[in-house]
Amino acid sequence: MAPSLEEPVQVDLNAPLKAAPKLVAPEPEHCPGPESEQAGVADNCAGCPNQKICAAAPKGPDPDIPVITERLASVRHKILVLSGKGGVGKSTFSTMLSHAFASNPSLTVGLMDTDICGPSIPKMMGVEEETIHVSAEGWEPVWVSENLGVMSVQFMLPGRDDAVIWRGAKKNGLIKKFLMEVRWGDMDVLVVDTPPGTSDEHLSVNSFLKSSGVNGAVLVSTPQEVSLLDVRKEIDFCRKAKIPILGIVENMSGFVCPGCKHESQIFRASTGGAKRLAADEKIPFLGAVPLDPRIGMACDFGESFLDAYPESPACKAIRHVVRRVAEEIGMQGDVLEGEE
Amino acid sequence: MPLENIRHIVLVLSGKGGVGKSSITTQLALALSLQGKSVGVLDIDLTGPSIPRFFGIEESRVKQAPGGWIPVEVHREQTLPRARQANGDASTQTSEVNGSTQDQEQGTHIGALSCMSLGFILPNRGDAVIWRGPKKTAMVRQFLTDVLWPELDFLLVDTPPGTSDEHISLLETLLKTTAHTSQLAGAVVVTTPQAIAISDVKKELNFCAKTGVRVLGVVENMAGFVCPNCSECCNVFSKGGGEVMARDFAVPFLGSVPIDPAFVMLVEEGVRPRYPKGTVVGGTALVEREEGGEDREGLLVDKYRECSLAPVFEGFVGRLVGDIEGRDGA
């Protein structure tokens, strides 16, 4: 069979949400998706063992959506941290953002890790060994401090190094549980950390949170074109999925040699970096955070870099970015009060 | 079967994103090619394909032929003129240091190199590929069954981070279609030295153990950065974690790769790598930075020979080829 060179067809982002029916066989290659309008009736469905199940599935919207909306009604601001590229510092930035907000004792902050195959948040927060407590009211997040709660798949794994070898549908199920079952409670900010790419996790987070309202997404990039290339795709995704973009942060921009104070561009911004991309795409540029080896060290030891080195240039840059994020989501006053 | 032209398949895996899977894949491919092997690179990172950018062939498009797709050619099998050496061309009076004159006459025989990536099919480089699992599965399968590879000694498969749809589909298809066990040679696992990356990569090693894929070796990328101003080596992302992990899991450790801004320049802008006077890596002096403009001429593989990382990868590839072909004979 000669393959076609057709432009790849995208997932229908506007399809109404439905509960995925329980299937008897794995979804076949050209499956329109058990949630789609055409489930069970499309041409590709002929001969599929799931056809009857899909065709008979209720076609209304997912009944779980109102439950999620109800759960999250008491969460005032929801921020997604996205990047098309891996390893640019999404999780690092998510932890910094949470720590910075939580440094204000009057705010309650939640951090949800939707990276199912490579969860790093628990380690960065120093709560790797914790497990989830289940009460009658739901799952209790792991509290890092008085006002900072974390949820991640890592808390559910029997062994620390166990691989989570799951296909998309199963990952979606867990993300839904995180939103439905977890007692986030009365919260000022919920930061949602995501895996790299534009696939199942992102589509699910977006569709589950749509009705409860997301403030927007913060995009993280490093200065090289290889990374910006993927971030451009993420911008395209946000536009298609109608997620507001709060702005873009450039991470690892410039490295100051601890020996001679000479600044090197390890990840060279040959095409103008994130600032230029932000200008081209007409989205706010939130700031640049320099590469500081101590940030990585602090993450490895599960400490807050902001508390450990409050005087470092990187810390000041991060505070600046957090203030800009707070402005963008319309939080009143100086959220980092009592500092500087 | 479309994979029957291929002698060995090597996967490049990592649980963590951004540790340099594509960069390592690129350099392994170039190093293999420099040893005269014919190499193919298959990029199954569907939502963030970087291979076209790394090889500087973003504008290329896949051609369709009866029965399948023709991969994009990076360079043909050919003989390159002898590589420039630090003391050779820059200052002629020391030419005797370069050793035997035979090498100078012969040049280097390089094998053909071609690539396949979703990036070659997208109409616009900024377009997002927003796909759920089943579509990704279908695409990975199609990449494995419908690409008309030429005769290849090695096919390197660059993967996205994680242990999900792409990986499951890749291994399902490969385990089903590869005829003999030595065809699916195994996986090179990439990590960076920080504990955060290591903890994700450990998951990937467990994935390999569960699926029965042999781990050919662990590469620790971004281990140290040599300041171009004062030549002091600074461990930006700490050091040594990869080796310890490899020992814990009883898999071979291939070595550490430092950050080389000249390699980034080579990939990003196609500039021939040049180093400050007197930079010596692993006993070989590198080509000095000269006054005047930057040289962008020549094939990527030709320019790569002058990069400080080339000898490092030559070593890796030597070990890999020895290991893989050694098992062939047995």
TrEMBL record, chain A:
Keywords, alphabetical: 4Fe-4S, ATP-binding, Cytoplasm, Iron, Iron-sulfur, Metal-binding, Nucleotide-binding
Matches recorded under Pfam families: ParA (PF10609)
PROSITE patterns: MRP
Gene that this polypeptide is encoded by: NBP35
InterPro entries (UniProt xref): Mrp-like_CS, Mrp/NBP35_ATP-bd, NUBP1/Nbp35, P-loop_NTPase, YlxH/NBP35
Function: Component of the cytosolic iron-sulfur (Fe/S) protein assembly (CIA) machinery. Required for maturation of extramitochondrial Fe-S proteins. The NBP35-CFD1 heterotetramer forms a Fe-S scaffold complex, mediating the de novo assembly of an Fe-S cluster and its transfer to target apoproteins.
Name this polypeptide is given: Cytosolic Fe-S cluster assembly factor NBP35
Keyword flag Manganese: no
Binding-site positions, [4Fe-4S] cluster 1: C31, C45, C48, C54
GO cellular component: cytosol; cytosolic [4Fe-4S] assembly scaffold complex; nucleus
GO MF entries: 4 iron, 4 sulfur cluster binding; ATP binding; ATP-dependent FeS chaperone activity; metal ion binding
Species per Swiss-Prot/TrEMBL record: Karstenula rhodostoma CBS 690.94
UniProtKB/TrEMBL annotation, chain B:
Feature: compositional bias, Polar residues: 88-105
GO molecular function annotations of the record: 4 iron, 4 sulfur cluster binding; ATP binding; ATP-dependent FeS chaperone activity; hydrolase activity; metal ion binding
Biological process according to GO: iron-sulfur cluster assembly
Binding locations of ATP: G15, K16, G17, G18, V19, G20, K21, S22
Domain of life, per lineage: Eukaryota
Region (Disordered) residue spans: 81-105
Stated role: Component of the cytosolic iron-sulfur (Fe/S) protein assembly (CIA) machinery. Required for maturation of extramitochondrial Fe-S proteins. The NBP35-CFD1 heterotetramer forms a Fe-S scaffold complex, mediating the de novo assembly of an Fe-S cluster and its transfer to target apoproteins.
A Pfam family this chain is assigned to: ParA
Amino-acid positions noted as binding [4Fe-4S] cluster in the UniProt annotation, renumbered to this chain: C227, C230
Keywords: 4Fe-4S, ATP-binding, Cytoplasm, Hydrolase, Iron, Iron-sulfur, Metal-binding, Nucleotide-binding
Transmembrane portions of the chain: none
Annotated Gene Ontology cellular component terms: cytosol
Sequence similarity: Belongs to the Mrp/NBP35 ATP-binding proteins family. NUBP2/CFD1 subfamily.
Protein name (Swiss-Prot/TrEMBL): P-loop containing nucleoside triphosphate hydrolase protein
Matching HAMAP family: Mrp_NBP35, NUBP2
Subcellular localization: Cytoplasm
InterPro entries registered for this protein in UniProt: Mrp-like_CS, Mrp/NBP35_ATP-bd, NUBP2/Cfd1_eukaryotes, P-loop_NTPase, YlxH/NBP35
